[in-house]
Amino acid sequence: RKIIFSAIQPTGVPHLGNYLGALREWKRLQNTSPPSTGLIFSVADLHAITVPRPPETVRQHNLEALAALRALGLNQDRSTVFLQSAVPCHAELQWILSCTASTGYLSRMTQWKHGLFSYPVLQAADILLYRATHVPVGSDQRQHLEFARECAINFNSTYQTDFMVKPEAITACPRRIMSLKAPTCKMSKSDPSDKSRILITDSPEIIEKRIHQATTDSIDGVSYDPDSRPGVSNLLDILAALDPKGRTPAALAEEMSGYGCRELKMVVTQVVTNEFADVRERFQYYMAHPKELADFAEQGRQKAMARAQPNMDKIRSIVGLV
Ligand code: TYM
């Protein structure tokens, strides 16, 4: 049986990279999977407190994340959408997994170098708790997925069980979406410059401005070469990801070889604006109705608990805890 799990950190309204790397795929899976497929999507608020913020900000970001997922069309009829911190089993399993996690592997991971040992273990716990088979994420999360598989193997071999399922990544968008200002870095919520990203709730005017101001280069025409033309290639990656005909970035570049950067930017603006046409209004509606969001979150919590608790009981018994 297929069980899909994924999560997003609540650190502000999601951006185009989150959308193309993950959220759009969540929505697609929700709307196309057979009823037997489990669909579990979390707002990873425990992950988001590794950088301490004022409690009001944490609450606000959780609301924004829930409103964004609602605005994109995720629902509790088909999916389970919940706040990670509302299901205590995540933190409990994180501890249990950290006892069998390979420190050699962890020490080679980027986040460990930044001193966040427990971050990838918590992420592994999120996934393994639901015995997820598939995890739709952007390509920047591959290393974390690999680590989650490693955690499953270590747990299973320590306790001589096959309870933990090794999850597979689903990566819909092969390349990371890059910053509009510094196209050799990924588009990120933590970039101090608003100009580096497009939010899924940005107005058409802002979207136009951001794309218009995106860093490109002074080479004539349009061609696809991420190494030598990162800015132009990023725009082509965005265009290809949203292309109804599914053309590759290279094919699009071929067709637009006579265009200048300005024309390319106009086409990208059009396509991105279309994609997010009704998201802004829907988002504003939910932000103005926090009670609806609270009910939504509570519904998700109950559904997630019903899935998580029996698995957690089993894990405790495998480990020998009462
Ligand atoms: P987060 O919140 O950074 O990102 C959420 C999703 O967006 C994708 N993404 C991108 N994809 C393409 N281009 C980009 N520039 C880009 N930026 C972000 C990410 O790959 C991700 O799919 N640790 C995770 C959250 C998490 C999680 C989990 C994910 C917690 N537990 C369990 C999967 C399974 C994170 O910080 O994602």
From TrEMBL:
Report the domain of life of the source organism. Answer: Eukaryota
Cell compartments where the protein resides: Mitochondrion
Regarding protein family, the annotation reads: Belongs to the class-I aminoacyl-tRNA synthetase family.
Per its record, how is this protein called by name? Small ribosomal subunit protein uS10m
Provide the species name.
Staphylotrichum tortipilum
Q: Which residues of the full protein are shown?
A: 456 to 777 of 777
